[in-house]
Amino acid sequence: MTQQIAPDVATSRRIPTTRVVLLTVEQREELEAICRRTAAEHGLVRRARMVLMRADGVPVLTIAHRLMIHRDNVRRWCDRFMEHGLKGLRDLPKPGRPRSLSLRSSASR
Hints:
mainly alpha
């Protein structure tokens, strides 16, 4: 006899994450403002959406599917937010030598 699984039940055997993102009113307003900005960096907006969705109780796997990213990225950014707050959503400095030419000077050539 085989076990039948309902189509709406996830087939993953992983234990759902218990990490919960709790936001203050100020944090929620700031994250929503980041999502509304038209001049905001795309990655920052995506990370703010991840945190907002997680705070609303949306499962990690659902967030990953909606934003078309890997579930580990959702976990990583939510963990960084919980540890560092809004500053944790910013990109870290890139390793390596800084640029010696600016984009403006190379474009004028």
